[in-house]
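Marked as duplicate of an earlier ticket. Keeping the data here for the record.
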Amino acid sequence: MVMDLLYLVLLVSVLLIFFKLIAEKKRFEDKNHIPSPPSLLIIGHFHLLKQPLAPPLTNLSTKYGPIFFLRLGSRPTLVLTEHSVIQECFSKNDIIFSNRPLLPSRKIQTYNYSTIIAPYGNHWRNLRRFFALEIFSAKRLQMSANVRHEELRIMVKHLFKSSLKGAKKVDVKAFLYMLDFNMMMRMVAGNRCIEEEEIDTDEAKGKMDELIQTFIPDLTMALGDYFPFLRWLTYFGVEKKLLNLHIKKDAITQALLDAHRNSKKSTDVETSGSTIVDMMLKLQESEPEFYTDDVIKGIMQSMLTAGTHTTVITMTLVISHLLSHPDVIEKAREEIDNHVGQSRLVNDADLPKLAYLRGIINETLRITTKAVLPPRESSEECKIAGYDIPQGTQLFVNVSAVHRDQNLWTDPDVFNPERFQDIAEEKEGCKFLSFGVGRRICPGASLAMRVMELSLGTFIQCFEWENGEDEVDRVGAVKTKGNMPMDTSVKIIFRPREALVKVLDQL
């Protein structure tokens, strides 16, 4: 009897989903017939996609045009793949597409959607204002410059001393994770993840592996987000994994928060040494209804996740490209020697003068990206390219297609940092999209660029690089998970430049 009832409930659920999907499809077909590939019952167009998303979406755009519709389970989805259509969308409908889809699988780990992915509205604007004024403003970045400089010098000193003991292959990605986690943790909470004397120990490696596994974003798609009747199944798969990761992150950030709350340290927000946690606890006193512990922990986790993973992966990819283009390293080194000299190391004040170095990073972001922007969702009906787009439509913007568009870039498949020598090239609307577009553009782009420019500039200035891999060009072999490159291992032998030995010896 119970089994019969379960079968009946399942059958009714499937029929309800089926009729809902038919209604959604008809709703789109009634809206000026947006181009769309043939779909399958229930799953819609899921069978046409694979990770990373950009290549199959680019292939579909060659047949269906720069704007087309996909039905991903119960979620109607619009795909934009051309510069002009993207620019039209975000110049006219930026507010309408300022929401993120509220995926059920992400509810717990985002503290009921109260983190930076919060729906567009007062709460999100307050979060954005906090990021803009208290973390990423020019004043705050200048105040945190000493943290970046100190951590970088510790790692450079370690490389130099190791090189004196003989040639040693350095796992670049692991090395950069240690550097970046220390920078972010000091900005967030004032303490290092790995102390200087621990750098080469097994204990440090274990700590870093645990941090990476905990804070690296898991972008695995939970089918329950797209097929509600399957959520009971995915809850014990993807969602269970996400929940376990959230429990670990929550425990770490709660411990940091409690330590600061119970300490006797100054919480004066004007103190140059104050951390992000200190600032938020001070603000919590005056605005407790907004700066709840969950919001504070969400901001901390955003810094430790977004502030490390994408930065490290991008720097590793830059290094991969530079190993394949030694002439580019020499040009960058010449620029640094001309503007900084050989009597001191690069600092934040030098970065505006190092246009070629910045171009190398931007060109790596442009040519390597195989991503779509994190999805948006329309809050009301709107019109794009003459088509009526219903409320609740998920939006994919194919960054890779724009970055490889021959109408926008000369020889788009060629690695050419010189194309970014004109600063307007990277600022031109909806042409260079590595940090997003519109109101949801990455708030930490300025910090990310400072960290990457300072770190890479210092390594180029101080060391000669020798490839420690059998293959010279690793970039073409990069594997991806979700939209992010994952297998970006590079090994390098760093040899001190003779002209910088005196400076390095004084670190």
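See parent ticket for discussion. The chain has two domains: 1-30, 122-505.
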